[in-house]
Write a structure and sequence with these properties.
Elements lengths: L1 E8 L12 H6 L5 E2 L1 H7 L5 H11 L3 E9 L8 H16 L6 E6 L11 H13 L5 E5 L7 H6 L2 E4 L8 H18 L3 E8 L14 H12 L4 E7 L12 E8 L2 H17 L11 H11 L4 E5 L14 H8 L5 E7 L1 H10 L4 E6 L11 E11 L2 E3 L9 E3 L3 E6 L2 E6 L9 H5 L9 E4 L6 H4 L6 E4 L7 H4 L17
Parallel strand pairs: 1-3, 1-4, 4-5, 5-6, 10-18, 10-19, 11-17, 11-18
Antiparallel strand pairs: 2-3, 7-9, 8-9, 12-13, 13-16, 14-15, 16-17
Bound molecules: zinc ion (ZN).
The site of zinc ion (ZN) has 4 residues, from loops.
């Protein structure tokens, strides 16, 4: 069996000041890849493509690559770039003879200029190319904003069911298992979607209650007769589009009525508990005394509102200022995106002490630049290898980077936007977060997979940024429906 695969993935904030351009696809994350290079790069990695490949090898399918396009979350993709990426994938897919099935690696919260439902658009284009007899299976992020078009155009969609998301490889292998049942056992999937008028708050960590119970309920539904698979989509709230919000989608074997009733059942469970998914986010300064009173170190502060993995610039200064104002010792900030400050550090050299301003250069919404008198500890080109679980074994770079310290506050300045999924990059800079008492991280939850095992307490905090609640108030114009809690039109 010959299975074509393609990856077009982006989480698009319609509010961020960070633009998406060709460089975002070519020079961020793992670059823009085509043909055999896609398989060579991702073989064995905990990613969708790595999992598609492992699943195909297990079932003796041939996986035929097209493109890999995946930019760090940022603004909507300009239309001309989106069209060119899609055209690249369709052209290569069109050259593959005798396609038996298609695996797509998508996100679910991609917006292109003039296309609110980019994944629906991609799935429709692939459907038109391969016809109705070739099964199309897609893997999505847990933060997908699901549209009816996506469900209509795909045969089966399987979303991540972990947050932090570490099950890319497992879900892709599941896609391969479902593909085998379709191609060899005559399975006839039918997919149903129930959208929930809910903006999911920060209570999303699947290892902990109440999210753990929702995933257990999902698994119980998946074990019922005739159910192929199901997914909960938390949604991605930083998009002012009509299908923004949470949802449930379930695939059954040729039973649309059961599929819909099960999706409705799980959606009702989520809706009934709608206040359980919300979390109040304190500021760093508010959370600090709570952490000190608990006395479990290191205390980790995770700044949800400057999470580069949600499309933020990564240079807000609220947390840095809070650490300096509190006179913390053995405290570090991972990371602040500030290539200009890195350049000054490079000019000064390792060991030099210099005066510089740090952060908040992208937009005043990210706070005020912080004047520092700091020593340069380490400089690097930013290269490192992920230790996993996420991106395990893959090489990446944070771009030119500098480790500076002022009093007891240690800061990693980087040039590329990416959240810390683990400590591998910090270690290349000779900063070991495990030796710190206070760790400030620009991330919502993905850091947990690499930090939780040595963390004392973790506090998700909010500091002024392009994506903080105060900045976004009154900015949603295109939802077209009332959403819980405050997204009221
Ligand atoms: Zn996600």
């Amino acid at each position: 069996m010959r299975i074509a695969t393609g990856s077009i993935a982006h989480e698009s904030s319609t509010f961020t000041t960070v633009e998406t351009n060709w460089s975002s696809y070519r020079n961020q994350r793992f670059g823009y890849r085509t043909g055999q290079d896609v398989l060579d790069f991702f073989r064995g990695a905990n990613t969708a493509v790595g999992g598609f490949l492992a699943g195909c090898e297990a079932h003796d399918f041939e996986l035929i690559p097209t493109i890999f396009a995946n930019a760090q979350p940022s603004g909507p993709t300009p239309r001309a770039i989106f069209d060119e990426i899609l055209d690249d994938m369709l052209t290569l897919m069109g050259q593959i003879s005798d396609i038996d099935g298609v695996f797509l690696d998508l996100h679910g919260a991609m917006v292109a200029e003039g296309i609110d439902d980019a994944e629906g658009h991609i799935l429709k284009a692939v459907r038109e190319l391969v016809g109705t007899n070739v099964p199309i299976l897609a893997q999505l992020d847990i933060h997908a904003n699901m549209s009816p078009q996506m469900v209509e155009m795909a045969d089966v969609i399987i979303g991540h069911e972990t947050y932090p998301e570490i099950d890319q490889e497992d879900r892709a292998k599941e896609c391969a298992d479902v593909m085998r049942r379709i191609l060899q056992e005559g399975l006839k999937p039918t997919l149903a979607l129930t959208q929930i008028p809910l903006v999911w708050g920060m209570n999303q960590v699947t290892a902990d209650p109440p999210m753990r119970q929702a995933i257990e309920y999902l698994h119980e539904i998946e074990s019922r007769p005739g159910v192929i698979c199901g997914s909960i989509a938390i949604g991605y709230p930083l998009a002012d589009i009509p299908h923004m919000g949470a949802s449930v989608y379930i695939a059954t074997d040729n039973d649309p009525v059961i599929a819909q009733s099960l999706a409705d059942e799980l959606a009702a469970y989520i809706w009934d508990r709608r206040s359980d998914w919300q979390l109040h986010l304190p500021s760093t300064t508010e959370a600090l005394p709570t952490g000190e009173a608990a006395g479990q170190y290191p205390i980790i502060f995770a700044d949800r509102d400057d999470n580069t993995g949600g499309g933020s610039p990564g240079d807000s200064t609220g947390m840095l200022k809070a650490f300096l104002d509190a006179g913390l010792q053995d405290a570090c900030i991972l990371y602040i995106v500030d290539p200009a400050a890195v350049a000054l550090c490079q000019e000064a050299g390792v060991g030099a002490e210099l005066e510089l301003t740090v952060g908040a250069k992208s937009t005043p919404l990210q706070g005020k630049p912080v004047p520092m008198k700091a020593q340069v500890v380490t400089l690097s080109d930013g290269s490192f290898t992920y230790e996993g679980p996420r991106n395990r074994g893959l090489k990446s770079t944070m771009g030119p980077s500098a480790y500076i310290v002022q009093d007891g506050v240690h800061v990693l300045l980087v040039s590329r936007r990416e959240q810390p999924f683990g400590i591998a990059f910090s270690l290349t800079m000779d900063l070991d977060p495990r030796q710190m008492r206070y760790i400030g991280i620009k991330s919502s939850a993905h850091f947990r997979a690499g930090f939780e095992h040595f963390a004392g307490n973790i506090y998700v905090v909010s500091e002024p940024a392009v994506h903080s609640a105060a900045t976004l108030e009154g900015q949603f114009k295109n939802l077209g429906r009332k959403l819980y809690p405050e997204y009221d039109l």
